[in-house]
Amino acid sequence: MRILVINSGSSSLKFQLMNMIDREILCKGLIERIGSAEGTFTYSRGNGEKIVETREIPDHETAISLALQAITDPQAGVIKDLSEIDAVGHRIVHGGEKIKKSEFLTDEIIRIIQDCVRLAPLHNPANLLGVKALKKLLPDVPHIGVFDTAFHTTMPEKAYIYPLAYEYYKKHGIRRFGFHGTSHHYVSLRAAEILGIKPDKFNCITCHFGNGVSISAIQNGKSVDTSLGFGTMAGVPMGTRAGDLDPDIILYLIDQLKMSVTEVRHLIYKNSGLKGLSGLTNDMRDIVEAALAGKKRPKLALRIFTRSARKMIGAMATVLEGKLDAIIFTAGIGENNVEVRAMVCEGLEILGARIDLQKNLIRGKEGIISTDDSRIKLMVVPTNEELMIALETEALAQGARKN
Ligand code: ADP
């Protein structure tokens, strides 16, 4: 089965065509600056050479036409005809409370995604543009939505309801949703496979440390808590986002410093976290480098990040009542940043997780980084959201074929 995976953002679109027999990536591409006269189109076959083109890309439909043309191009392409694509898997950010698993993108499901625009105003409209354009260009294949929020819909009420007056949940749907679900799901499944534990018996904490950061508690293969919440601000500080703040600070900024909602939003989403603390950058590589060179604010940023992450891991360990097999690091920082992992793990011995500093030197590949006598395994598992989307799409499309 050949599956096209699409991740449609507001001004960019990523695609990947996979052959599911051997999980080979036949080709992949990235289209950036959609809506501009200077759009860029990057495409490569398997592990082959990258083709980069600059051209006008007015809208998502043009972006998708370009992708489909490249895939079927007699020279650069990997298939002769679009009929060789068996299904399309779309990344969808928000499915709200109603969507608990991957779904065929029927009119009803599309309506639910539309309803969730109020919860993800930047992401869901962009995802829908991709769905609409592709359904038009490939009308005869199944289109399946894989939702970032779906994996966390197994959280119990006590984890997802905020201690606000209860009506705000009942009337307005304000609750914890959690994000990065596809990544948490993938790395937990892969870690269970590596350790030879059945997924439905596997207990772990997954640490997704990218530009966005979230930490989840997974019990018997299911998400039971996660650090991101109603929106994408809560928990550990991120590249440019503050993470947990005392809500009184927001009120103070508005009431006393007379900042507008737009200014506050900009401050806490774009100018805080690693960037705001270091006064330098949101990139963890540069923060670590500056901290090692003795610069004060990057050092502070690194300490605040790693302490906050460790504290959240501790909290998730109590949610799991200490019954956990592994703590897993993933995404840009989690997969690559040796110093951050070492600092986060400092002190996790109290949970029974002891890092091996030598084994910790791996970057960007799977491995166990705890000592042999560590009760809980510390692991690095590179995330692969595209593969997870393809696997979910394959499972649904195959099920439909059988029926
Ligand atoms: P996004 O959430 O945007 O997908 P990523 O998962 O790519 O982001 O994570 C971005 C972060 O990962 C940055 O802080 C960057 O410094 C860090 N990172 C990426 N590659 C490396 C690397 N090779 N070594 C250290 N840190 C890295």
Q: How does this model look, in words?
A:
There is one protein chain. The chain is an alpha/beta fold. The chain folds into two domains: 2-147, Nucleotidyltransferase, domain 5 (2-Layer Sandwich), CATH 3.30.420.40; 196-385, Nucleotidyltransferase, domain 5, CATH 3.30.420. The protein contains 14 helices and 14 strands. The strands form two sheets. An eight-stranded mixed sheet has the order 5-4-3-2-1-6-8-7, with helices on both faces. A six-stranded mixed sheet has the order 11-10-9-12-14-13, sandwiched between helices. Helix 1 crosses helix 3 (123-137), helix 6 (181-195) packs across helix 14 and helix 11 crosses helix 13. The radius of gyration is 22 Å and the shape is globular. The chain starts with a strand and ends with a helix. The site of adenosine-5'-diphosphate has 13 residues, from helix 10 and helix 12. Adenosine-5'-diphosphate (ADP) binds at residues 210-212, 239, 283-285, 331-333, 336-337, 363.
